[in-house]
Predict the 3D structure of the following.
Amino acid sequence: MMLNYKLLYEIADSQKNNADAYKYFMLYIELRDEKIFSETKEEASILRKKYTVERTKREETENILEIVETEKDSLVIDTIKKSEQISQLEIEKKHQQEKIEWQEKEFEFNKKESEFNKNLAKKRQRIIILISIIGIIMFVVAIASYRMYKKINSKNKLLISQKQEIEVQRDEIHFQKKDIEDKNQHITASINYASYIQTAMLPPYADVKKSLNDMFVLFKPRDIVSGDYYWIKQKGDYQVIIAADSTGHGVPGAFMSILGISILNRIIDNQNNTSTSEILNKMRHSVITSLHQKKNDSKSKDGFDLAMIIYNKKTKQVEFSGANNPLILLRNKNEDFNPFIENEKIKILENENNTSKLVEIKGDKMPIGVHVYDNKNFNNFIFDAKKGDCIYLFSDGYQDQFGGKKGTKFMTKNFKKLLLSIHEKSAAEQKNILENKLQEWMNAGKGHSQLDDILIIGLKI
């Protein structure tokens, strides 16, 4: 049984099962001690018996000695004594050897027990260290979590405060937006009414068609109201046609256009047999006077760029003057162009691939308004119209419009090519083509919004 416990101890110790190893080791020691005690007791009994035997022998020996002594045989006595001493030494030696063996076994047991206790203490120390490390980690995590909680809580409070502030701002913005929308609606209504007034001041298109049947007006304001305007009036055999471009567009331009129309009405209604150049001279004087313009005042540069013709339906004679803006005439290539006054401002372009020639008569390089040369008279150009002629007056809005795949301006060169390609068509067809081409140009590429007011007047003789 003792060996079984020893074997169980060795198995548990090899498996690092310290609890079972300790239990089996203690059971083994307990059985071993019992066995050693039993063996020792048995040996003591044997020794007692031997001692009894020896004592008996000794007594016998003593008796013999007494006899021998009696017989005074000293030699025999000495021999017996020596024999007795030897026996006693042998017994003591055996006891001493058994004592040494027991001490060795006890030392070995104490050594193993000490090693076991050391290993157990190391394992306990490791467990304590591990538990301490886990505790420290948990403490650090707890502190970090608490700090994170405080930080998040602080941020949440800040976010709530910011949210409340944003909501207040949102409400304020909503109120301002509503106020702006109301004002914008009111302003838009006012501008729409201004548009109605401006339209009422322009000549009705039906009246224009009555006086000049084959004629078109392409009029496209950039905003609700326009800085560009046209002015057409029948006076006896004369037809007065003006295409004007005011400084700016939108509401400021519209104010200027109303001023220009009012001045034209006053000048032409109150005078007869006035040339185009004289009309522009008087119009410039009225604008400078009405706007209190001065040459040295850089802020007061408002005015008009315009092209004007007076067409005598009876004599088929055309008189032209321009303030920065030109007149374009398209005529059959075989027909001559002989103006009454030769001038470097007249440019005739002929294209071999086209049956028509393009005549451009440039306006004077000064506006209707204050200018460094505002004391200089405008030039007058007179020529005879031919059947099939097409005369065009226009502002710069069409040519300056951005569009196409590259987002560039349409340019005057392309505008002239377009007029060359359509001038033989009816006035209504020409207007449709110009509108469609403009829309196509603006929608190409990324798409572009209208840059400026657009005005083109086409008259087919």
